[in-house]
Amino acid sequence: MSFPTTRLRRLRYNPVLRDMVTETKVTTDDLIMPLFACPGKGVKNPIVSMPGNYQLSIDLLVEECKSLMNVGVRAIILFGIPEEKDETGMIAAHDDAIIPKAIDAIKKNVPGMYIIADVCNCEYTTHGHCGVIVDGDVENDQTLDSLVAQCITFAKHGVDMVAPSDMMDGRVKAIREGLDKEGYYMTPIMAYSAKYASAFYGPFRDAADSAPKFGNRATYQMNPPQTNEAMREIELDIIEGADIVMVKPALSYLDIIRRARDRFDLPIAAYNVSGEFAMVKAAAERGWIDEDRIVKEILTSIKRAGSDLILTYHAKQFAEKLLK
Ligand code: PBG
To answer: What is the pLDDT of residues 114-137, one digit of tens each?
Structure first.
């Protein structure tokens, strides 16, 4: 059947019908809000390149979690800004380090909040790289120790899920074995599997004070032109025991999300990263775009590409006023 019998505009005419035939709807169940925990009390340091986001001391972090819950955002991913850094990142695995303390406080005061901990070393190392430095580059196998140690400590403090973002080979296997050995066999791993060496992380590195002091992350994060390699990364993480795999960043990598969706059956997450957020905010500040509509369109496109979970700094704003 073709025109004039078939008219696709018929289904677009009425707003109720348009809603009824909508294929992709983002809800707060899909969203994970990233939050930054810092030392101190009553501290709320604005992150300049990410308007509306702050480094929060744990007391205020708890308040933020309550207000997220109130608007229906029930999952967060935590990043830590430590008091002190070391050479290996092992400092992040102490019981009184910033993330274990944040987990304790949130679990106690906002029990329904689902807490995911980002697991990496770059926020905790003096050199800002994601692992142990040997001969001027990140040494893969030695780095696994601090990642596993972080995961075990976080699990001991009741974290709901760990999310390694370091891109070392074999880290999912090491973390799974480490957690299982300690009895935390029910703690899921969301692996940053296809994580690209991207310029879109710029604002985050200011927020987390995690920019590398020398060189870049190109020897461990993926090269942006790669797609087959992303499938290998994801496949290996699945074999090693990942429960959820992630593609990061999201917007310039929607093709990777779609390829992964068509090929793998486990849940896929996408990280709508800091630079993607900053661009929207900057253009909106100038009045060049309609921010609310753009945010909705962006999150919908990420879900439409095939991701089940979306990590996004827009989560609260979306829940507060865009849900309809
Ligand atoms: C840590 C980490 C980074 C991000 C998440 N975890 C930064 C990086 O790899 O340099 C980026 C998040 C964002 O840009 O929003 N390795």
So the answer is: 999 999 999 999 999 999 999 999
CA 22–ligand 1 middle distance (angstroms): 33
Strand stretches in 105-153, DSSP E: 114-119, 132-134, 137-139
Is 321 in the active site?
A: no
Q: Which of 66, 156, 181, 248 is catalytic?
A: 248
Domain range for 59: 24-322
The CATH number assigned to the domain holding 157 equals 3.20.20.70
CA distances from 113 to 17, 73, 178 (A): 35, 8, 25
Verify whether residue 85 is a known catalytic residue.
no
Q: Whose CA is nearest to atom 11 of ligand 1?
A: 201
14 found inside a domain: no
Largest Cα–Cα distance in the chain? 71
List 25, 41, 173, 195, catalytic entry: 195
* pLDDT at 49 exceeding the cut of 70: yes
Taking the mean position of all CA atoms in its chain, how far away is CA 271?
A: 5
Is residue 249 assigned to a domain?
Answer: yes
**Which residues form ligand 1's pocket by a CB distance below 6 Å?**
118, 120, 122, 130, 165, 201, 204-205, 210, 273-274
Q: Half-sphere exposure (CA, 13 Å, Cβ side) for 117?
A: 34
Q: Looking at ligand 1, which residue's alpha carbon is closest to its atom 14? A: 201
How many Å lie between the centroid of ligand 1 and the Cα of residue 248?
A: 9
pTM above 0.85, yes or no: yes
Tell me what the mean pLDDT of segment 215-232 comes to.
96
Q: Report the domain count for the chain.
A: 1
**Is residue 227 assigned to a domain?**
yes
